[in-house]
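Methods: holo model generation. Sequences were used as deposited, without trimming of termini or removal of tags, and paired with ligand SMILES retrieved from the corresponding compound records. Each pair was processed once, and we did not select among multiple samples. The sequence and coenzyme A SMILES for this entry were:
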Amino acid sequence: MDPSPPAPGPDTRIDLADGLTLRAYEGEADRTEYLRVVGESVEHLRPWMPWAAEHDPERLAAFLTDRAELWARGEAYSYAIVLDGAMVGSCGLHRHDDTPDGAIEIGYWLHPSVTGRGLATRAARALVEQAFRLPGVTTVEIVHDVAHHASAAVPARLGFNGDLRRPHEPTAPAETGEDRIWRLERG
Ligand SMILES: CC(C)(COP(=O)(O)OP(=O)(O)OC[C@H]1O[C@@H](n2cnc3c(N)ncnc32)[C@H](O)[C@@H]1OP(=O)(O)O)[C@@H](O)C(=O)NCCC(=O)NCCS
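and the model returned the structure below.
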């Protein structure tokens, strides 16, 4: 018997208004631009993103190489955030070991030159729409350290409920050891 076909994933390219596009990473072809955008953003990412503290070109390239397989397995759907043709950040849908059944998590970061314009909120809104089209997904989560107010404002704008907290061993310099978990239920 043929193996069952892979579960359908989200769109690989999402064109939004005003020059904003989310598109799946393209492996090695994205290397130069991805290294540039991370390199220029690293001081702004370091307080909150553990991988930024120890970023190096080989690890970043490995991130790109892994994307297609993780996408195919349904574990992570990662997108470059592109504004007027230039990569300006990253976002995605992913599942961790501790992601509850039926849930998927949204993550995002932006180059510091494009914050304050609503791009992360618009990207997250588009990912919510994609997430709820995936089979079995009933809940979308956004998780961040309780002290990260800029990140909290994104799910708050989108109507998520942010009542949950849980301890989390700090992994990045600004983290306090407590996460805030925002949830949005389908419908
Ligand atoms: C988290 C992060 C992506 C938030 O970025 P952001 O620019 O604050 O978020 P948005 O792109 O949604 O922009 C929101 C701002 O744009 C304004 N805005 C303008 N137009 C808007 C629109 N159409 N929709 C929503 N907000 C809009 C909002 O009022 C808000 O302004 P404020 O910062 O003065 O309150 C950013 O701080 C970041 O990259 N941090 C480092 C990486 C990181 O920590 N990632 C998250 C880990 S949990």
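Residues 44-45, 48-49, 108-110, 115-121, 144, 148, 150-151, 153-154, 157 surround coenzyme A (CB under 6 Å).
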